[in-house]
Design goal:
OB fold (Dihydrolipoamide Acetyltransferase, E2P); single chain; about 450 residues; seven-stranded mixed beta sheet; Dihydrolipoamide Transferase; 9 helices; alpha+beta; four-stranded antiparallel beta sheet
């Protein structure tokens, strides 16, 4: 008997997922719990295991398609079993008021706009909900709508019960952009989509090869992948939300280097590679305890202070980045911080993170120095109010007791939300972090 493969719900607030890649082809044998396909949501990318053993008989959702949770994406059956076709579409609830069919509106793509700049297209007609019924949509749809200043109630939803899907909102934006000959949302977001973080512990990866330019062509256009689109959306939204201000401090890492060298054998016996990241986390926790405004968020006109210190650590992936979170970091010692960060980074790179691993962060660290940057000015990871950038550690000549000395120096940069964090508080926080890192190692 065949078994339906469904799009899982990867978190309480997740309403849809995008099929990134099928790891098996139709006709392939799969084992139960063997990775079957990869999905991407607004929270996490993940490999989804097979719900049963058998033959992959049918695939209903192609790579790149976004569908709602619980949608049947494929089917697994026994050897020799015949495909039966896609499942019947669920009927709309009888009590749902029927909406009049919208007038067909031509959509002008970016390519068409370039080919025929003089052509004009009617604007998409907003569709209001009858009787003021609440609009159903996922958090990612709401974020996209907020970024582009769109009232979600004006977008006609094609999902179950009239839910506005990501495809609906992007189509609405594209139609609106086509009217004025403006670029598509993805093109508009691309300049601001530069990653705000690089991995804290990973060695430098080989630079990707550049595009191949066909003969006679001076440019190549490449569609952003799913993760890059989401990074673009999140970065633009953050810059629109928070007025960013920056403070940069120089840190003498001599005592941290000595402490790390002394502790490395002990940590190695526990199977943990001790990196500098753990020491930065330890110092940040001390700073947050003294200046809790750094560990807060903004809700309208209200400042929300967070009791737990949950530190996100940016991890670079092959096609983007993700920020898994070390929960309750303030309750851990140095060994616990090292273990927690290493485990999350490993699971991020092997696509074994769960939605809970990337939620509830209260402060973020990004190591911009792993590839040699002296310092960086990262973008705040919303809804947090601050992010710390760690620069490379380099031996430099400095003045110590009126004498020239060679010391390992690092530069730390704090990007903070000037709506609620003043320069004085940011500098006091950074001074505490600096003092913690530079205090003598006994």
């Amino acid at each position: 008997m065949s078994v339906d493969v469904i799009m899982p719900q990867m978190g309480e607030s997740i309403a849809e997922g995008t099929m990134v890649k099928w790891l098996k082809k139709v006709g392939d044998r799969v084992q139960r719990d063997e990775p079957l396909f990869e999905i991407s949501t607004d929270k996490v990318d993940a490999e989804i295991p097979s719900p049963a053993e058998g033959i992959l008989l049918e695939i209903f959702v192609k790579e790149g398609e976004t569908v709602e949770i619980n949608t049947v994406v494929g089917r697994i059956g026994a050897e020799g079993e015949k495909p039966v076709g896609p499942p019947a579409q669920a009927e709309a609830p009888a009590e749902a008021p029927a909406e009049p069919a919208p007038t067909a509106t031509p959509v002008t793509t970016a390519a068409q706009a370039e080919a025929a700049p003089a052509a004009t297209t009617a604007a998409p007609t907003p569709v209001a909900r009858p009787g003021g019924a609440p609009v159903k949509s996922s958090p990612v749809v709401q974020n996209i709508a907020a970024e582009h200043g769109i009232d979600v109630s004006l977008v006609e939803g094609t999902g179950a019960g009239g839910r506005v899907t990501k495809k609906d909102i992007l189509r609405y934006i594209e139609q609106s952009a086509g009217v004025a000959g403006a670029p598509t949302p993805a093109q508009a977001a691309a300049p601001a989509a530069a990653p705000a973080a690089v991995p804290p512990t990973a060695p430098p990866a080989t630079a990707p090869s550049g595009p191949v330019f066909p003969s006679g062509q001076n440019e190549v256009r490449e569609e952003m992948n799913i993760m890059r689109k989401k990074i673009a959306e999140h970065m633009v939204m953050s810059k629109h939300t928070s007025p960013h201000v920056y403070s940069i401090f120089e840190i003498d890492m001599s005592n941290v280097v000595a402490r790390r060298n002394a502790l490395k054998p002990e940590f190695a016996a526990e199977g943990v590679k001790l990196t500098f990241l753990s020491f930065f986390m330890e110092a940040i926790i001390r700073g947050i305890k003294e200046y809790p405004i750094i560990n807060s968020s903004v809700d309208g006109d209200v400042i929300v202070y967070k009791k737990d210190v949950n530190i996100g650590v940016a991890v670079a992936l092959e096609n983007g980045l993700i920020v898994p979170v070390v929960k309750h970091a303030d309750q851990m010692n140095l060994l616990g911080l090292a273990k927690g960060a290493a485990d999350l980074a490993d699971r991020a790179r092997t696509k074994r993170l769960m939605p809970d691993d990337v939620q509830d962060g209260t402060f973020t660290i990004t190591n911009v120095g792993v590839f040699g940057s002296v310092f960086g000015l990262p973008i705040i990871n919303q809804p947090q109010v601050a992010i710390l950038g760690i620069g490379t550690i380099v031996k430099r000549p400095v003045v110590v007791d009126d004498m020239i000395a060679i010391r390992p120096i690092a530069h730390l940069s704090l990007s903070y939300d000037h709506r609620i964090v003043d320069g004085a508080d940011a500098s006091r926080f950074m001074s505490t972090v600096k003092n913690e890192l530079e205090k003598p190692f006994a």
